[in-house]
């Protein structure tokens, strides 16, 4: 891995390099995605069946587009029982964590008859997109569905591409069943996003779409935003490790590669105050890259977006971490809790050498659907609030309004909105 001195210039260069990975730079694919979305919106099922045949080499129609109970039962026979039990335990952890995020409606009443409040209700129908093939991750099914279930969303549907035989990845079906998905449809790609956004004869229109996908899926979500809510337009995965001389270089290298194996565009960055650690992590990372199964992907990821930055002070390392605002941030230092208090921008923070990033990906409970490409500066992980609507409640008595009606009329008149002012004024005219 590359070892660079952390300076203002190297930090700026790194940020510019990372930003090139943003989905906002996928413009060359937008025209093709726009055509797919428009076609599905206009022709519905006919279009999605044509795209499934073209892209997935599979004959799907109204009679077999929805996954049956028998197919789910068959999937359980294909998945190792031990893995099923692990999924169930992970689901319990995810559910328990997200239950702590629940908020209640509230009302605030005063003696003069003023009543203000907020009503919290779940969205009606949520849609989850799940990739297929090598990118099929049952863990993401749990992470997308369970917050919606905790929020009491009444109906949750899922779309995922079939293989050439019309089958859906067994692990995906088992995870969906454990999480409590109501309906599963064998549709993938941008056409699946459009189907959920606008509805077809077979696929219902949803209120919100969540879930990861390739460039076409990301751009389809972007194109449909406004017609439907979305979680985010996620970019490639990323990890940043802050470490000092006390860190174990093998642990650090292993954690960096855990994200590099996702994608050739994934980023893996170490910021350390120890030159000895930097050199040893570089050696260990290069060695591990040769031994792991996704060698080619890891090597390209590290060549393009793998960095070891050598900082003069830990404060410099913290400042850089806040600027990068990484999706995953590990702190492997003598006192990780002290440094954690100074981190303002990160999707998820992992503290100490026994809290490596995959713990969060699979099992701990917090959501692994996190902001990427620096958006942790203003976005949060997927959570229960993403499936809730907040409605304001306002009620004034005549006594309460009489105390403030002239203030409201003046404010409205200052904006030239005389009908607004009159709506208040008429209530106090004799």
Automatic annotation (TrEMBL):
Its cofactor is Zn(2+). Pathway: Amino-acid biosynthesis; L-histidine biosynthesis; L-histidine from 5-phospho-alpha-D-ribose 1-diphosphate: step 9/9. Keywords: Amino-acid biosynthesis, Histidine biosynthesis, Metal-binding, NAD, Oxidoreductase, Zinc. It is an enzyme of class 1 (oxidoreductase). InterPro entries: Ald_DH/histidinol_DH (IPR016161), Histidinol_DH_CS (IPR001692), Histidinol_DH_monofunct (IPR022695), Hstdl_DH (IPR012131). CDD domains: Histidinol_dh. GO terms for biological process: L-histidine biosynthetic process. This is Histidinol dehydrogenase. The keyword Ribosomal protein does not apply. It comes from Kineothrix alysoides. It catalyses: L-histidinol + 2 NAD(+) + H2O = L-histidine + 2 NADH + 3 H(+).
